[in-house]
Amino acid sequence: MSLSCRRARTAKEVAYVTAGRLIQHYQDFCLSKGIDFTRIDSVRPHDDTTLFCSAGMQQYKPLFSDPSYSGTVANSQACLRLGDLDEIGDGTHFLHFTMLGLFSFREMTVGDAIDFWLAFLGTLGLAPDHVTMHPDRLIEWTPLYGGRVPIVADAECIWSDGSISGYCTEFYKHGIEIGNIVNPLGSCIDVGFGAERLDMIVNGTPPADALETLRETVMTIVESGYRPGNKEQGYVLRKLLRRIHRMGGTLDHPFFGEEVERQKRLGAKYLRLRDRYCDKGAEWWFDTHGIDLSDIEEIIE
Fold first, then answer.
1. Is 99 helix (H, G, I), strand (E, B) or coil?
2. Three-class SS of residue 293?
3. Burial class (CB in 10 A: 0-12, 13-18, 19+), 278
4. Is the CB of residue 74 less than 8 Å from the CB of residue 35?
5. Domain Alanyl-transfer RNA synthetases family profile spans what residues (predicted)?
6. Where does residue 57 rank: exposed (0-12), middle (13-18), buried (19+ CB within 10 A)?
7. What is the DSSP letter of 189?
8. Which H or E run includes 129?
9. What tens digit of pLDDT does each residue of 168-203 get?
10. Of 13, 104, 116, 292, whose CA is between 20 and 30 Å from 165?
């Protein structure tokens, strides 16, 4: 293994240790409150609405929508959000991350969740610089903070996953959103805070650069049971492997070497056939030869 790979792996292991301690601390805090806790390290989705799990609440959507159910649970959930792909490396977008969640179905109030959240942050020696909330909730929710945190009105404080929605209040430290409390359906609680962002602020753990973020994301997908392919999760994995290669990076895994060789073969095939099939569109090239024309410039360079 190259020196750069060893250094990257060492940095990753150190980050996992500190983030792991924070997750364990959160688990202990929840259990001390009598709240059941589940830890999920796979990014496999809990339903068919996403390719990967994108939020800790995904598995609980049926409970949010069941008016006969009440109860409270907590978890740490590995998540992956492809919408952040072009933002990685900026210090706040991680592509894949661990969400620390608290979910209450017609049991906890917004005030209870605020007290819980501030108490947990207090165990980390952390207080938010300010919180935001929707103007429609200022009168009702401001007293719940009891003057403990400055409040800023923000009309964007509405959350929705397409089927379940609610007003939210967001917590900020050093200009970074560290988590939020959502009030789905006006009767439930959905709290989510990012372990990596908290770790970065509390422990000073430096964020991974873009290449290391891509490497970690690829390994998370692989460890969740996926292989490179032409469809769905396998296609995402293949695209990420190609991006690592295009950025001049490497990955100490057989899938990376296999994809690099595969791209060389596809590039040679395209150069051999492009004049003969110059009238064919992108769909034909992909369906017939597995060549993605959106990547062809990188393939043939």
1. strand
2. helix
3. exposed
4. yes
5. 17-269
6. buried
7. E
8. none
9. 999 999 999 999 999 999 999 999 999 999 999 998
10. 116
Structure token pair of residue 163: 């089927």
Q: Report whether 165 contacts 89 (CB < 8 A).
A: no
Q: How far out from the chain centre does Cα 238 lie? A: 19
What is the average per-residue pLDDT within 215-234? 94
Q: Amino acid letter at 195?
A: A
Per-position DSSP letters for 74-96, written without gaps between them: EEEEEEE-GGGGGGTTSSS--SE
Nearest to 91, CA basis, from 16, 244, 217, 197? 197
pTM: 0.85
* CA nearest to 131, candidates 95, 88, 181: 181
Question: What torsion do the CA atoms of 224, 227, 230, 232 make, to the nearest 10 degrees?
Answer: -10
What the block records as the tokens of 130 is 């300010």
CATH architecture of 3-203: 2-Layer Sandwich (3.30)
Q: Is the pLDDT at 103 greater than 70, yes or no?
A: yes
Residue located via tokens 């959160």: 26
Query: What is the C-alpha separation between 251 and 244, in angstroms, rounded?
Result: 8
C-alpha–C-alpha distance, residues 172 and 127, integer Å: 9
Q: For residues 56 and 99, is the Cβ–Cβ distance under 8 A?
A: yes
Both tokens of 270, joined, read: 């395209």
User: CA-to-CA distance for 213 and 193, rounded, in angstroms?
Assistant: 19
Looking at residue 214, its amino acid is L
Chain position carrying tokens 């989705």: 45
Domain range summary for the chain, segments of one domain joined by +: 3-203, 227-300
**Strands 71-80 vs 96-105: parallel, antiparallel or unpaired:** antiparallel
Q: Residue holding tokens 């650069």?
A: 209
Instruction: Please count the CA atoms within 13 angstroms of the CA of 158 that sit on its side-chain side.
Output: 8
